[in-house]
Design goal:
This protein is an all-alpha fold.
Length: 325
């Protein structure tokens, strides 16, 4: 049994020991709490990421397992970053959507992934695709260069590198591509290479233009740029100076073959919106309005594109009254 003298003698070491136990218990509890998705979900801007995580293949893995890294240094960095995240949350110095370009995924090392996964993966679960992971590993590629949204899938506004157009950051049919764009390298011979969109009867005539204007990257996966030029019979997409004030290439192309323009620009009086000053689409076609503009401003703007005898094509034939047009 301890005497009073013995207790007094060991009082300081006992207090220090108890304090250390309490301190390390607090650190362990804080580390465990801040590694759980429920902690991340406390911030409203993270709610979409947490929901996506909950239905992902990694739903049973805590956040730190991927975002923390391995080793004491990685642990300290991960927990220090939390201070910065909290600061951004409080001061609202964050952009939405969160992690739009996948910067957090880029920080995850292959070593972290290989804590659970094997580097000798031979099975690809998606039908019609066969990915040689060994070849990619030999090229010193990080897992997250492709698998950047594996734990937070399906979120709008974020780039998913498992989509085929992202493969063509390296692969390509264009000269100078880092890796081959041959279909057989990733797709078996039984796979139908033609996209579903291309099977539509109106794809080439109507729908492909809107799709290309939205994002041309999928087009470049299979087609050279000359493919578009050959069909459209002019530079596609149009160069930056196509309608500029200096070279004005579109005017020369339009005069040479005006029917080429209307194959894509099917809107009524498309040219009038730029060329015919004073044109008001609400009042009908340009033909019905032009006489008033010419009467007011003269024919200078007209002869910049049309010959002096152009007006005679209609007016000499008796179509001089706008009401008859």
């Amino acid at each position: 049994m301890f005497t009073r003298e013995a207790l007094l003698k060991y009082r300081v070491p006992m207090i220090v020991a108890c304090a250390l136990v309490m301190w390390f218990s607090f650190l362990w509890l804080a580390a465990a709490t801040t590694s759980h998705p429920l902690f991340c979900g406390l911030c409203h801007e993270m709610s979409a990421e947490v929901r996506a995580y909950s239905i992902s293949p990694h739903a049973e893995v805590n956040c730190y397992a991927c975002h923390g890294g391995t080793g004491l240094g990685a642990f300290v960095r991960a927990k220090t970053d939390l201070v910065a995240f909290v600061y951004r949350h409080v001061t609202r110095l964050y952009g939405e959507p969160i992690n739009k370009r996948g910067a957090l995924a880029e920080r995850i090392t292959n070593e972290t992934c290989l804590n659970c996964h094997t580097p000798k993966r031979v099975v690809t679960p998606t039908k019609g695709i066969r990915i040689d992971h060994v070849v990619h590993t030999k090229q010193k590629m990080a897992c997250t260069q492709c698998h950047n949204r594996v734990s937070h899938p399906g979120l709008s506004g974020r780039r998913d590198f498992l989509k085929m157009d992202a493969c063509f950051r390296c692969h390509g049919v264009q000269p100078g591509a880092k890796a081959t764009g041959q279909c057989g390298k990733c797709h078996p011979s039984t796979f139908d290479l033609k996209p579903r969109t291309h099977r539509s009867k109106v794809w080439a005539r109507k729908n492909h233009g809107a799709s290309a204007r939205k994002d041309r990257r999928p087009c470049a996966m299979c087609h050279f740029k000359t493919f578009c030029d050959k069909c459209h019979q002019l530079a596609m997409p149009h160069p930056r100076d196509w309608a500029g004030p200096t070279l004005n290439r579109h005017a020369k192309a339009g005069v040479k073959a005006p029917l080429i323009c209307v194959r894509c620009h099917t809107q009524r009086d498309f040219c009038s919106t730029c060329h015919h000053k004073g044109y008001d689409a609400r009042k009908g076609s340009w033909v019905r309005q032009h006489f008033q503009i010419v009467r007011k401003n003269g024919i200078y703007d007209c002869v910049r594109c049309h010959s002096l005898t152009f007006c005679a094509t209609c007016h000499v034939n008796g179509l001089s009254q706008p009401g008859r047009l």
